[in-house]
Amino acid sequence: MIETLQALAEPNRFQIVELLRGGPRPVGEMVERLGLRQPQVSKHLRVLRDVGLVRVRRNGRHMFYRTNADAIRPLHEWTKTFEQLWQHQLGRVKERAEAKQKELEKV
């Protein structure tokens, strides 16, 4: 999972994964949408492919890239642990705010 986080820490690679959330895309479209040169996009795609975040499918001369949900799932599971922590913390904040409100209503 460390390799996945390191790959996504690079802003251009993060943008590529964000772009691929909308579905498979050819390299040329990513070049146009991201405003990067084709060799840059290809380099980033290679890194994302090496860590398993994207998959490639050939259709004739065109290569279509898409996200790999199986590789993203561990990140989702990991971030869910933080969601549980924040929900607990927000619950405590809510309890304090409600207690303070009751205290103010007594005055």
Structural summary, described in words:
This protein is an alpha+beta fold. It has a domain at 2-68: Arc Repressor Mutant, subunit A (Orthogonal Bundle), CATH 1.10.10.10. 72% of the residues lie in helices and 13% in strands. The chain is built from five helices and three strands, in the order H-H-E-H-H-E-E-H. It has a three-stranded antiparallel sheet with strand order 1-3-2. Helix 2 (11-20) crosses helix 4. The longest helix has 38 residues, at 69-106. The chain starts with a helix and ends with a helix. The model has no long low-confidence stretch (mean pLDDT 88).
Topology readout:
Layout: H1 2-9, H2 11-20, E1 25-26, H3 27-34, H4 38-50, E2 54-59, E3 62-67, H5 69-106
Antiparallel strand pairs: 1-3, 2-3
Structural category is alpha+beta
In CATH terms, the superfamily of the domain at 2-68 is Winged helix-like DNA-binding domain superfamily/Winged helix DNA-binding domain
DSSP summary, beta strand count: 3
Low-confidence stretches: none
Mean pLDDT metric: 88
The CATH class designation of the domain at 2-68 is: Mainly Alpha
CATH topology of the domain at 2-68: Arc Repressor Mutant, subunit A
Tally of helical segments: 5
> Helical percent range?
over 70%
Radius of gyration: 21 Å
What is the strand content?
5-15%
Sheet of most strands: 3 strands, antiparallel
Distance N to C terminus: 54 Å
**Biggest sheet: strand arrangement:** 1-3-2
List the secondary-structure elements in sequence, H or E.
HHEHHEEH
CATH architecture of the domain at 2-68: Orthogonal Bundle
